[in-house]
Amino acid sequence: MHESALIHSLLNIALKVKKENKLKCISKITITAGQMHQIIPEVMQESFDLMKKDFPGFEYAELVMNETPVKIRCRDCHKTITLSQPDFYCPHCHSSSTEVISGNELYIDSLEGE
Q1: Residue 57 is part of which domain span?
Q2: Other Cβ atoms closer than 10 A to 38
Q3: Are strands 62-68 and 26-34 parallel, antiparallel or unpaired?
Q4: With bands split at pLDDT 50, 70 and 90, how would you rate the model's confidence at 27?
Q5: What is the pLDDT of residues 43-95, one digit of tens each?
Q6: In a domain, 56, yes or no
Q7: Which CATH number characterizes residue 46's domain?
Q8: Element (H or E) spanning 14, and its range?
Q9: What is the pTM of this model?
Q10: Number of domains comprising the chain
Q11: In a domain? residue 33
Q12: What are the φ and ψ backbone dihedral angles of 4, each rounded to 5 degrees?
């Protein structure tokens, strides 16, 4: 389960921000994760709820996850395609010369606290 490792890193980053900004607590963490990371939201939430108890000031924090779909751009016909399956070829011209333009993101959008 890579979700636990992601949550641990996320909480450590949020803790650093909390300390740098002299916040008493963090109430909400919003992240964006692309579908290529194959994150299971329920596992992320469960890991977050378990681990946040070990971080002072995070006891009541909420995790909000935004997921971005995998999109590719064909280098030959220049069409943009949203993938529903991991087939990285262009369904229009059948080229395998494509580039991923979204769906590989993984970052903290925002932290809320006081």
Answers
A1: 2-69+104-113
A2: 10
A3: parallel
A4: very high
A5: 999 999 999 999 999 999 999 999 999 999 999 999 999 998 888 999 999 99
A6: yes
A7: 3.30.2320.50
A8: helix 2-20
A9: 0.86
A10: 1
A11: yes
A12: -65, -40
